Amino acid sequence: MTLPLTARELECLRTLGRLTGTGWPAKLKAIAAELGVRPPTALELLDRLIRRGLVEKGPTGYRLSKEGGLAASKLDRAHRLLEVIFERAGLPPQKACLFSGDIGAALPDEALNALCRLLNHPRLCPHGNPIPGEEQHAQSQP
What we know:
Blueprint: H1 7-19, H2 28-35, H3 39-51, E1 55-58, E2 61-64, H4 66-88, H5 93-100, H6 109-118, H7 134-138
Antiparallel strand pairs: 1-2
């Protein structure tokens, strides 16, 4: 059985996804700076994620594996759907983001798909970021 990711590991996945969105590997110092930790702490996180098959290390830096990319996309999807819910409930976007936190990591795909349908498949979160669609995650389901 695979243990769930820690909040710090989840943050590292999302950060690496942001940094490598252009396809270029991210350097350890950049990852550490984005996470607000020292490079040895970032290296420890990355090593754990490598062992789990979510991150790959290349000669010029780190990037998400295919599985890691799907996991990061799912985290973004969950976070952004929750932001939409909180904003529609009357919270300003900054608070909606804060309250969304890492709640989404605990939601299975079935719950995320139900939320997406309930919200009529929003394309953007309150900050204008795209919400990954259900079709991107269908392949990761059994």
